[in-house]
Design a protein that fits this description.
- The protein contains 10 helices and 11 strands.
- The protein is an alpha+beta fold.
- It has a single domain, classed as Deoxyribonuclease I, Chain A (4-Layer Sandwich).
- The chain has a 6-stranded mixed sheet, with no helix packed on it. It has a 5-stranded mixed sheet with strand order 5-6-7-8-9, covered by helices on one side.
- The radius of gyration is 20 Å and the shape is globular.
- It starts with a helix and ends with a strand.
Length: 400
């Protein structure tokens, strides 16, 4: 297995690097300025690396033949975060997809390679069979009956890649935490019936893993990817779950004693701990579906700072595409996802990198160049599928 992994990771990567060399100079102009002295860059990117079957994400990353994979890699290479949460990377227990992504990012492409020696990928609820009829279709099988919606175990997982050491032994995951454990949970009990007490809060997992800061101390990475608040019925089970998945972080930051991790440890974050909340939270504070008070409460939390980054690409997209965007209340420059404008929600702000108080914000941004700017080809394109992802990488520079 190890020999096969090394072989697949080497296939076709050298030809891609050669073909990308011509565009490297153009892409360099798209890179944000590096962090100032003493600051570290932390990022989140829903990279759309999930595939329709188990092992296909690993295959795509290892073979290196898909333009989308390389567009994702070049965005990360250009922004060059010290720590990044990559969302929608299918999880496998052997870590093959994550290892292939590590190898891909370390090689030169359209931008110089970047090494991430420290990685972690938690197990997730998506695609994990519950054995219960959770979607009410009369059968206890299928994506809707998994603990989190997914066609196979690990679909839509996520991983942390870091240049800073990660405290993997003390990482806390909350995949098994029952929804009803949350005080005031919005669980639709009438819909779930006798299964209401078994439903899990997290559609993937909530993860707290600490990165060692260069000057000493720890930075807690609070990572999650709540379910979209759509694809349900009048019971609003996904909208309710999205709200409570986001509210979890506010309660965790407050040190709530009802919280229990997958190892049996109780309680939330220690008082005064430094953190960054990272995630595609699938919620915009002003527009789109969902319960805005969930994300609004997190953004207004007294220990949370909101850099509210903007991009020229987001503003241009909203202006050019019209549709739902024309009816929105929020600042379009803050959007981080490019979704259907006709018959859809339009572009929304759903991806966040939120530092705690006590951390100085030295810069922030969203990788979304204007359509005529360097690097535009990584995010702009015709056709149904985007060149990289329908989400944009969001980053923040912090000084402890």
């Amino acid at each position: 297995m190890r020999r096969l992994r090394r072989l697949l990771c080497a296939l076709a990567l050298a030809p891609w690097a050669a073909s990308s060399a011509a565009s490297a100079q153009e892409l360099a102009a798209a890179a944000p300025p590096p962090p100032e002295a003493g600051a570290i860059r932390v990022a989140v990117f829903n990279a759309s690396l999930s595939r329709r079957g188990p092992g296909l994400a690993w295959k795509a990353l290892a073979e290196g033949r898909q333009d989308q994979v390389h567009a994702v890699a070049d965005i990360i290479r250009l922004v060059r975060p010290d720590v990044i949460a990559v969302l929608e990377l299918d999880h496998d227990r052997e870590g093959l997809a994550l290892s292939a992504l590590q190898a891909l990012l370390a090689r030169d492409g359209g931008a110089p390679g970047i090494a991430y020696p420290h990685v972690f990928a938690p197990e997730v609820n998506t695609g994990a069979p519950s054995g219960l009829d959770l979607d009410g279709d009369g059968e206890a099988a299928g994506p809707g009956d998994a603990w989190g919606w997914g066609a196979f175990p690990g679909q839509y997982g996520f991983a942390i890649l870091s240049r800073l050491p990660l405290a993997t032994e003390t990482a806390r995951s909350f995949a098994r935490l029952e929804w009803e454990a949350m005080p005031g949970a919005l669980i639709p009990r009438d819909f779930y019936g006798e299964n209401a007490g078994a439903v899990r809060l997290s559609s993937k997992t909530h993860l707290d893993i600490a990165a060692a800061l260069p000057g000493g101390g720890a930075l807690h990475l609070l990572v999650s990817h709540p379910t979209p608040p759509v694809f349900d019925g009048p019971e609003d089970r996904n909208g309710r779950r999205n709200h409570d998945e986001i509210r979890f972080w506010a309660e965790y930051i407050d040190g709530a004693d009802w919280i229990e991790d997958d190892r049996g440890g109780r309680g939330g974050l220690a008082p005064g701990a430094r953190f960054v909340v990272l995630g595609d939270l699938n919620a915009d504070p002003e527009d789109g579906d969902g319960r805005h008070e969930g994300i609004g409460g997190l953004l207004a939390h007294p220990r949370v700072q909101d850099p509210a980054p903007t991009s020229p690409g987001a503003r241009a997209a909203a202006s050019e595409q019209g549709g739902a965007n024309a009816r929105q209340a929020g600042d379009p420059a803050r959007d981080t996802a490019d979704w259907r404008d006709a018959g859809g929600p339009g572009n929304l702000r759903v991806d966040y990198a939120l530092p705690s108080d006590g951390l100085a914000i030295a810069g922030s941004g969203v990788f979304w160049p204007a359509p005529d700017a360097p690097g535009a080809g990584l995010v702009w394109g015709g056709g149904r599928r985007p060149p990289s992802s329908d989400h944009r990488l969001v980053w923040v520079d912090i000084r402890p």
